[in-house]
Amino acid sequence: MIKIENLSFQYRYKDNSLNALDGIDLEIEEGESVAIIGANGSGKTTLAWCINGLLLPDSGKVMVDGFSTHRPEQIPAIRRRVGMVFQNPDNQIVTTTVEREIAFGLENIGTPPAQMHQRVTQALRRFELEQYRYHPPHRLSGGEKQRLALASVLAMAPKYLILDEPTSLLDPKGKREVNRMLKQIQAAGPVGCEPTHRAGQVTVIHITQSPEEALEADRLIVLSQGKIVLDGPPQTVFGQRDQIWALGLDIPLQMRLEIANNTDEGERYLEKLFDSEELDKPSSQDKRKKPVKISTHNLSHIYDDGLPTHKEALSNVSIDIKKGEFLALVGPTGSGKTTLAQHFNGLLKPTSGQVKVEGEDLWDKGIDLQKVRQKVGLVFQFPEFQLFEEKVAEDVAFGPRNLGIAEEQVQQRVKQALEAVELDFDTFGQRSPVHLSQGEKRRVAIAGVLAMDPEVIVLDEPTVGLDPRGTKQIIRTLKALHSQGKTVVIISHDMDLVAQLSERMTVLSEGKVVLTGSLKDVFSHSDFMVSIGLDLPRIIKITKGLRFQKRLSGQLPRPSLVAN
Prior knowledge:
Elements: E1 2-13, E2 16-28, E3 33-38, H1 44-51, E4 59-64, E5 67-68, H2 75-81, E6 82-85, H3 98-108, H4 113-126, H5 142-154, E7 160-164, H6 172-188, E8 203-207, H7 211-214, E9 219-224, E10 227-232, H8 234-238, H9 241-246, H10 253-261, H11 264-273, E11 292-303, E12 311-322, E13 326-330, H12 337-341, E14 352-357, E15 360-361, H13 369-375, E16 376-379, H14 392-402, H15 407-420, H16 425-428, H17 438-450, E17 456-460, H18 468-483, E18 487-491, H19 495-501, E19 504-509, E20 512-518, H20 519-523, H21 526-531, H22 538-552
Parallel strand pairs: 3-8, 3-9, 6-7, 7-8, 13-18, 13-19, 16-17, 17-18
Antiparallel strand pairs: 1-2, 1-4, 4-5, 9-10, 11-12, 11-14, 14-15, 19-20
Helix pairs in contact: 3-4, 3-5, 4-5, 10-11, 10-22, 14-15, 14-17, 15-17
């Protein structure tokens, strides 16, 4: 059993402090499946870190099977029982090959060599990492790294498994596989489980922003401002929908549609969802007449070229991105999306082929890549990689200052950039990035790019790990940027986000372009999308069934467009 009594924790930085947990009382029984949700900054990750002793509380106590995190000599026993997968896999990957990464934890707990080899092989197979056995982990995609982190922890057969947004970087196929595996683990134990781990004894604690994933748990805990505000069966907790919405969270889409379907307003809601214009947004101006802003021609990129660990990430990719358009780059995990985006402003050099910005090859002699990067701004998958100054305002000002812009204009740009991402300069300007929530960090990272006044902004998974309120803020920001004439490119596995924002999609698979066109054109290839590990927007899949039921009863006319 995990027993937590009156747990409180504060983050301290110089003269500032942030109350992350406030008087938490909680018991988690062996074999429970528990989901934890809450807005960004509500204390979810801090609570997880306190459970396995990564953080020591300011007051209160944490006990795991009778062992206390306050006793240093008992921490190893706790961590052997409590396995944890972080949201950012780079925070826990420490070795030079995939195989050694999985073996690392097993070595630390003294697993016999023969058993260790068996567990490593099982984990590689289960997480589809066999082909990368001898590859360096830093060469894997974000989703592949997440699978590796999961494999490494599960191979150690923990009794309690804490997962902090484990599916945030995965494609739909990967998400389904992880969620299926969580059910299997609780029923039959983890990879290579020891005799003491009988069926039903593995306790899964799943931190997630997905209400659909939370609905699968036996118990749901909702955190707000460091306190437990709701605790009970998921259906019961989500039934408190007004309180859930007031906290900036959401209920499962299925439940939202059931509510809409049982009200007069639901009729109009469903009609809007099935309007073909929602999937084939007409542009105010014909994009075919607009000039090409960025193009690639037979672009190929090979990591570790000439070495046994070489990996062809891109193969003969040719695309055009036109001025002022909103393009989505989608594809299964490891398809080459991030690699492609990092060519757009010269962060990566092609192994072969060309990348052009406004018709100029980035790698021609005399090209000033600094000016290119001023035109084409890139927001990375994890915003903390871009934030390094002590204060938010200084971080946002870093880029403009490096361009030699006058200080008065720099300050003006900083204020405008923070305002564009809905962060008040007076409130946030002097705060440390360390004390920001994930959503606030993401918006500061975007502000740092906007302060450079780019003509193109490329965002890699801009809403990963964000709560619904934070996601809506990012959506408003991106819509505003596009309305100002900026060219916007997003990389995302979130098809609902893609359908809501973009005008056109390019689909990658195994480093190649396999589909490109309008949303309606691409989503009409639904069978193919599913076959490569992608999906349709959830809103279409669920409401199509509801719409069909209503049509059978004569309540709705036959739709002009229904995605296949």
